[in-house]
Structures are given as C-alpha cells and as structure tokens.
Specification:
- This protein is α+β, with helices and mostly antiparallel strands and 184 residues long.
- It has two domains: 13-119, no CATH class; 139-183.
- 33% of the residues lie in helices and 13% in strands.
- The protein contains six helices and six strands.
- It has helices spanning 35-42, 84-88, 94-104, 139-150, 155-161, 166-183; strands at 48-49, 54-57, 66-73, 76-81, 110-111, 118-119.
- The radius of gyration is 17 Å and the shape is elongated.
- The two termini are 20 Å apart.
- It binds zinc ion (ZN).
- Zinc ion (ZN) is lined by residues 66, 81, 83, 85-86, 93, 95-96.
Length: 184
C-alpha cells in the first residue's frame, strides 16, 4: 500500500506482528475512583519514550518499571502495559493511567502511527474504543479526515496549519470520503 512519505518518521513494524495487534485504551466504569488513577496523579513518572509507540513508565512511588504501548492509530488510542495489574483490571493500570493523565495535562506528546503527527493533548476526534478501519487511506488523507471531518477543524484553518492550499485539503477529504463510502 502506498502512503505519502512523512520525513523524520519511521513506522514501528513489530506492532503489527502481534496477533490481533495491541489493545486499545478502555477505561473501567469506575476509573475516576480507581487506585490506578489516584496513583497516576500523585506519583511522578521518571520514565520516557522508547519508540514512537512505546514508553517506559517508572512511577516514583514504586521500584518497578514497565514498558507501555501508548500511541494513536486510526481514530483510537493503543494502550497496553506489561504489568500484572493491566491483566487483572481489564487493561487499566497505574502506568496506562499515568500516561493518560500526563497527556491530558500536556506533559507528554503522543504519536499517530499512521500519519506521523504528534499530539500534545488527546485530540477531539479520539474514540477510545474506536475500531474503524482506515487502512485504505493514505497518511495525508487520514490526517485531513480526522481533523476536518471528525474534529470539525475548518478546511482553511487545517490548510494553514499544515501549509497546504485549501484546494489540496479539499481533494484529500473528497478522496478519503470516497474511499470510506466505497468500503461500506
Ligand atoms: Zn501497568
């Protein structure tokens, strides 16, 4: 499949090798009352990025360090931790919670694996349990579609922020819509 070249960004190959791919973030109903969420806000994280898709999380209230997948794909967020709590609590642990908290307050930047764009906060188009397949779109088409179609960013504003002409963005959107409608 051809995608537009995005300089200075390399796709992470090993993610797609896992069976079914990594899990998406899903929060339990009582997530705001969970111990994981409390830890996320009280402990600091001394870890950092490993790749575009993964971070090391080292919370200040414990000795353990965990490798956490935390990256945007399509219209959703991949989030997976190697700790036991993640397994016991259906995908919600202090390490995932810490990254979500830090991203929400603008302390970390999260990469979009398909478009290469970096997000300083959770984007308006994000669907936590989203499973829409956007594989047919090029990186540029997906980037424009997420912003203009799903997050209601104006075509002109998006064109300005990406240094494209409004006509080019309009074409990207038309092609994206056409491909997505053709698949239904
Ligand atoms: Zn964890």
């Amino acid at each position: 499949m051809s995608r537009s070249a995005v300089p200075s960004w390399q796709p992470v190959d090993d993610l797609d090798d896992r069976i079914g791919g990594p899990s998406t973030l899903s929060m339990p109903e009582d997530w705001a009352l969970s111990t994981a969420w409390e830890r996320a806000q009280t402990a600091t994280d001394q870890g950092g990025p490993i790749t575009d898709a993964e971070r090391l999380v080292a919370l200040s209230d414990g000795e353990d360090r965990h490798r956490v997948t935390f990256a945007l794909k399509g219209n959703t967020l991949l989030a997976e931790c190697d700790c036991a709590g993640y397994q016991y609590h259906d995908g919600w642990c202090a390490h995932v919670a810490s990254l979500w908290w830090r991203w929400s307050i603008g302390e970390i930047v999260v990469s979009h694996l398909d478009t290469g764009r970096e997000y300083e906060q959770p984007p308006a188009w994000l669907e936590l349990d989203g499973r829409t397949d956007y594989d047919a779109l090029t990186a540029a088409e997906l980037d424009a579609y997420l912003a203009c179609e799903r997050a209601d960013v104006g075509v002109r504003a998006f064109a300005r922020s990406t240094r494209r002409s409004p006509g080019t963005v309009g074409n990207l959107l038309r092609r994206a819509r056409g491909k997505l409608e053709g698949e239904r």
